[in-house]
From TrEMBL:
This is HID1 domain containing. The lineage of its organism: Eukaryota, Metazoa, Chordata, Craniata, Vertebrata. InterPro entries: Hid-1/Ecm30. One of its GO terms (cellular component) is membrane. It comes from the Eukaryota. It comes from Phyllostomus discolor. Pfam families: Hid1. Residues 569-675 are annotated as: Disordered.
Amino acid sequence: MGSADSKLNFRKAVIQLTTKTQPVEATDDAFWDQFWADTATSVQDVFALVPAAEIRAVREESPSNLATLCYKAVEKLVQGAESGCHSEKEKQIVLNCSRLLTRVLPYIFEDPDWRGFFWSTVPGAGRGGGEDDDENARPLAESLLLAIADLLFCPDFTVQSHRRSTVDSAEDVHSLDSCEYIWEAGVGFAHSPQPNYIHDTNRTELLKLLLTCFSEAMYLPPAPDSGSTNPWVQFFCSTENRHALPLFTSLLNTVCAYDPVGYGIPYNHLLFSDYREPLVEEAAQVLIVTLDHDSATSTSPTVDGTTTGTAMDDIDPPGPENLFVNYLSRIHREEDFQFILKGIARLLSNPLLQTYLPNSTKKIQFHQELLVLFWKLCDFNKFLFFVLKSSDVLDILVPILYFLNDARADQSRVGLMHIGVFILLLLSGERNFGVRLNKPYSVRVPMDIPVFTGTHADLLIVVFHKIITSGHQRLQPLFDCLLTIIVNVSPYLKSLSMVAANKLLHLLEAFSTTWFLFSASQNHHLVFFLLEVFNNIIQYQFDGNSNLVYAIIRKRNVFHQLANLPTDPPTIHKALQRRRRAPEPLSRTGSQEGASMEGSRPAAPAEPGTLKTSLVATPGIDKLTEKSQVSEDGTLRSLEPAPQQGPADGSPTEEEPSPAWREQRRLSSASASGQWSPTSEWVLSWKSKLPLQTIMRLLQVLVPQVEKICIDKGLTDESEILRFLQHGTLVGLLPVPHPILIRKYQANSGTAMWFRTYMWGVIYLRNVDPPVWYDTDVKLFEIQRV
């Protein structure tokens, strides 16, 4: 039968289904088989020939027919899994049923009355006699998930058959050890099977159906307690699924072994269509959804060694019940870590390679899924410490900085900005990250930033400065995070370049203008963070940082102005009046923007009309992080319960000098609408805590000496001054060094919920062909147009 006839017959069957007012018996095979037995329709055909309005009409007007359609389609998948799909006809039926269920499931999820349907058992649903009665007890969802798992390891359908002869070659599906059929070499598996286009496309279709099963999460509004587990994921990742281990391994290895470059030959991808990429994308999406497990709510040891959690936790086995999370947490061999890190770094760097030889390699689009996967590896595994053991961490850092810089003006990519910053915040809590940043930066990825010669630390500072001064307004909540990262690494930075030093002082200048300090209740925190950066470098890395010391001397009036910040009501009022005239967030002047790197394109805003998904708010920096003090021997001591110095940390519970301040904090959210107004008491409460002593002492000692050189030698040349500062010393002249404070990321339910909405938003937007969830009533986020 031709494909046109095939489509026509399929469409006729759909019309019959939507026009029948009477229930059709489940036993009426002649009717139901029209949907899958005699047709060869692609997934795109199915989406075109089964319109949304008709699915909803059947759901409302003849619900029993929709129920029977789902039940019969699942039954066909179960039969295919049982028999092992030996004939072409059986394979075609499985694919047709898989496509049909992918089309229909979202419409079942969007209606709360139908949500329990897949979790109910279908009474005596014509399974043929009594022998299968115990099978009848399985809810439809479980039968469907187990069938998909079996089908993903089905010889000659989704994996290579190991049998040589064709005579009696049916491998028994039930005795088959799927661990011998893992899809790709890598973690726990050494053999790389021959690539097979048909197997890859069949896997992709089944994974798409699996992802659609998991997507019920999109139809539930974001819940603050976010501990709600997804029943589909929970069952699929439990011991009920005998393929859990080989499937987890197959997904992870397929993603990490993928090389989009076209087998290392430039432009090769133009000659060979890459059928692997859709499989890798689907594998990455399924993997991150199965790993959506809130580590903050699971039993975790607290500081005093007891475990937090409810009484229910006592009866749980050690470790998460989700086997995918469990397996991920148990990866530990060096070579496995190396394979994963190299794979993720290679894929994250892929869009950067584009810029050297345009179009020479295939440009991948799934970097957001990879960043979520990287986050999960650090969250559930000791992977983070492996990553920081060598300078390989820089192969993750550079692509993240590239994405942050590239997306800074694009409102549709605000989620990408957040996850990039969260990962860097997590890394910055470890001393090794700061140390690694001292490696010279020589890879010249064309980026829209000033040219500089220096280290990876310089690159990070220059990119952060660019985000703060030329990103869009929606990024303001990230400023605290960006500066916290710089504070965390600052005690380890051996030598900042002049470009980076000037950028830091430009930020201080911008953040310490009176109108900025007085226009919102939290803005002064940014000044505290920057002063902490300068103090850390002066106290712990003075030698080698003559560029920064010179920049501080040149901009000394900024520090004097801060020390003499006015606190009287008329001046405060005047500063805010000035703000109404100039609402520009930060002045770009005085930042000496150098020419951008050659070959770079400016960061572009989103095209009007670009779709984006809403995100839940992220917790403030005080909830995101936990303060620790670095002891003499380098170990960290948590400081959380004890009160801390200064309002720099923004934790409202700690040092609230006055009810007025508490009130201001409450109103800070209203500052945009102009209701919030600063008071003298409020300014005094934090001005007295500005940590200016070290810098003032440095200026007191060095400024006269520098001025003397200039007068003596009639100098305007900075190289001479820099040479003097390089050999200068402040030993014994500075206050006693303060202990180093690190703000480490701490898991919390707020970020867990943020990750869930972000991840599903990415998956929603990236699945456009076919548009699985498009135009369905999702509740986890809103779809917005830029």
